[in-house]
Amino acid sequence: MNYKLKTADEAKEREKGVLATAVRRLVPLMRGEGRAVAVSFAAILVTAGSTLVAPILIARAVDQYIAGGDFRGVLVISGILLLIYLVGTVSNYIQVRTMGAVGRRVLFNLRNSIFNKLESLPVAFFNQNKAGDLISRINNDTDKLNQFFAQALMQFLSNFMLIAGAGVFLLAISARLGAAALVPAAVVLVLTQLLSPWVRRRSLASLRALGGMSGEIQESLNNFKVIVAFNRLDYFRDKFREANEANYAASVSAGVASNTFTPLYTLASTLAQLIVLAYGIYLISHGSFTIGLLIGFLLYVTSFYAPLRQLAAIWSSLQLALAGLDRISEVLALESDMRTVADAGAARVGDGSILAFESVTFRYEDSGKEVLRDVSFRLEKGKTYALVGPTGGGKTTTASLMARLYDPTAGTVYLDGRDIRSYEPAERAQRIGFILQEPFLFTGTVRDNILYGNEEYKDRNNEEVTDLLESANLHTLLSRFSEGLDTPVKSSGDGISLGQKQIIAFMRAALRRPDILILDEATANIDTVTEQLLEDILQKLPPETTRVIIAHRLNTIENADEIFFVNGGSVTQAGDMQHAVDLLLHGKRQS
Amino acid sequence: MAKPLETSANTQNEAAPAAPGLFSLLRPYAWTIALLVLLTVLGNALNLLVPQLIKHAIDTYTLGSFDLVRLVVEFSIVAAFIFIFTYGQNIVQVYASERVARDVRNRVSAKISVQPYEYIDRMGPGKLLTNLTSDVDAIKTFVSQAIAALISSGFLIIGASALLLLLNWRLALAVLAVVPVIAGTFYYVLGHVRKLFTRAQEAIDWLNAVISESILGSSLIRLLNSQQYEYQKFLAANAEAKDIGMSILRLFSSLIPVITLCTNLATLVILTLGGHFVIIGSMTLGDFTAFNSYLAILIFPILIIGFMSNIIAQASASYARIGRVLDAPDERKTGGVKAELRGDIEVKDVTVRFGEKVALKDVSFTVPAGRRTAIIGPTAAGKTQLLYLLTGLLAPASGSVSYDGRDINEYDKQDLHRQVGFVFQDSVMFNLSLRENIAFSNTVKDADIERAIRTAELADFIGALPDGLDTIVSERGTSLSGGQKQRVMLARALALNPRVLLLDDFTARVDAQTEKKILANVAENYPGITLVSVTQKIASVEAYDQILLLMEGELLARGTHEELLASSPEYVQILQSQKSTNQYELQA
Question: CB distance B379–A231 less than 8 Å?
Answer without folding.
Answer: no
